[in-house]
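User: Study the shape:
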Amino acid sequence: MSLDEEARHQLAALEAAARLRTRRERQAPAGAEVVVDGELRIDFGSNDYLGLAADPRLIAAAQAAAATYGVGAAGSQLVLGRTASHAALERELCAWLGAPAAVTFGSGYAANTGVLATFGDADTIVFSDALNHASLIDGCRLSRAEVVIYRHGDVEELERRLAAAPAGRRRLVVTETLFSMDGDVAELAALDVVRRRHGAALVLDEAHALGVLGPAGRGLAAAVGVEADVVVGTFGKALGCAGAFAVGSQAVIDLLWNRARPLVFSTALPALVLEAARVAVAITAGPDGEARRARLHASAAALRRGLPGRAGGASGSPIVPIFVGDDHTVMALAAALAAHGLLVPAIRPPTVPPGTARLRVSLSSGHTPAQLTSLIAALR
């Protein structure tokens, strides 16, 4: 069977395959409305938690950088793609997050696979939360390490598995902090105690928590006072841009520079993205960021109050899953919401486990009380 035939066969087996061709045409300046396939909808599907993706300040920074550097980096960071913007953004990330060193990646997927493949090997055992993101799962596979999966959020099981691991092998615990599909958070303080007791290193994916949780939006680890060996974050969610980064000790970042294949063998992020991200970091860490987080958390609380017993996720999380279970039903619900002018993605296997299909509501500081009221009324 040719690849074309195989692709057609698999697409025919996918329900509502037309979703693969959904086209987002533009985003309104307020960050809460989108035009999708020619229709204006209120956006309850993006990860633009602070409403920065269409912020005029970020746009102006990107335009100025494009005029100076052009639109492409034209090479990897290790060859000729690195600019002054890379160094400036890394310094500002370190100042914001209180980290010794930082390095940028083209995407969160590249950062997670690069970090885990760099620090895992055949002598390593990686302990991974059962609901970790696909990029972490693939990073574990690429590392060639032995991978031990512990039940989602179950610190007691993690400790049992750490205690049962053979002596003399490197141990590495990896988890998201704010989980992207369930909207809940890791029991990070307890997990940190357990991993230290058993001499394990800690890698955190703070992609959905940075900008949203913790003092100055520095994430869950900062909120609970946990120091990880490596923290991965993205510019593509609360910061409204694209790309990702890792922070850690100088030795850790130097090793990533030399060994992380997605960094070494990929074209660098262009300066226009980096300059927009610098503005986003400054906003997120400052008073405007605090005001946006306050609006975001107020919206999350209002939605959970409006749907008692139905809206999942941790208090304060902008990710609010509405669990449905059946794939056909969740697709029908998403279509009905679209008919009301509301964009709420239906999430099905393999993104989530079978039988746990859900509507995934993601909130933004740009949502108005009237828009939330419309969503609650439609969901009811």
Summary: The two ends are 47 Å apart (CA to CA). The domain at 56-285 is CATH 3.40.640.10 (Aspartate Aminotransferase; domain 2). The mean pLDDT is 92. The first strand starts at residue 24 and ends at 27.
